[in-house]
Amino acid sequence: MRAPLRWVLWDVKDTLLKVRLSVGEQYCKEAERMGLSLNPLEVDAAFRNAYRNYSRRYPNYGITQGLGGQSWWMGVVRDTFSQCRVQDPALLNTMAHNLYHNFCNAENWEVFPDSKKALESCSSLGLKQGVVSNFDSRLETILCVCGLLTHFSFLITSEEAGVAKPNPVIFDQALQKCGVPAASVAHIGDHYVNDYLTPRSVGIHGLLLDRNSKHNQPEVPQEHRLSSLEELPSWLQQHRN
């Protein structure tokens, strides 16, 4: 007999909400406030390079190397602008500090049109909800200002957990908080490895959200895919009991 579903876990970024402007545009707005004129495309490319380098050298916000979310992100911002020929250390620090805190503001995030209804449908079915996200400690503030926080019984960020997806330990931590068997838990996210394969490896029902039909893995059956969160309620109804 199939275990009844009791919990739904969520990824956040690019699942429930997304950054409103490109990183290049966001960073250029801050640079402009400081009297600088930079090219958003150049800044975007520099950011991708800095982000890739920091992720490789200091995985999961460098917490095992004595960093943390704020220090890590400020380093990424400084490195990004340095690649764009901004050299003044005080200016780099000011922009890095401002951008780190600016990303807590609701105007920098766009909640997908189907997100709130999907969260409400889970609650109306009596399901509890939590978050498992590769994110830093700003996540609670961001979810609050975006009007989503009250839907969740707990949040697990990779910074606070000390491990990041695709390490299955982060889902083990979530299961401890849920207090039910893995077969009574679903997880929804947009990343094939992090949000589909990894939760399924510990027995959680992984659902792959594929808004833009970018995932072409043939081994993901149709019943494990969502093209939008509007399809979620019918899946939940099937697995509720």
What's the name of the CATH homologous superfamily of the largest domain? HAD superfamily/HAD-like
Indicate the structural class: alpha/beta
Unreliable runs = none
Largest sheet properties: 6 strands, parallel
Q: Return the string of H and E elements.
A: EEHHHHEHEHEHHEHEEH
Task: Give me the CATH fold name of the largest domain.
Answer: Rossmann fold
Overall CATH architecture of the largest domain: 3-Layer(aba) Sandwich
Summed over residues and divided by their number, the pLDDT gives a mean of 94
Q: Report the total helices.
A: 10
Distance between the termini: 10 Å
Q: How many strands in all?
A: 8
Tertiary shape: elongated
Family: Belongs to the HAD-like hydrolase superfamily.
Protein name: Haloacid dehalogenase-like hydrolase domain-containing protein 3
Pfam families: Hydrolase
Organism: Seriola lalandi dorsalis
Structure description:
By secondary structure, the protein is α/β, with parallel strands linked by helices. It has two domains: 7-16 and 112-239, HAD superfamily/HAD-like (Rossmann fold), CATH 3.40.50; 21-108, DNA polymerase, domain 1 (Orthogonal Bundle). 44% of the residues lie in helices and 13% in strands. The chain is built from ten helices and eight strands. It has a six-stranded parallel β-sheet, sandwiched between helices. It has a two-stranded antiparallel ribbon with strand order 2-3. β4, α6 (139-145) and β5 form a beta-alpha-beta unit. α3 (69-83) packs across α4 (89-102). The chain is elongated, with a radius of gyration of 19 Å. 35% of the residues are buried. The model has no long low-confidence stretch (mean pLDDT 94).
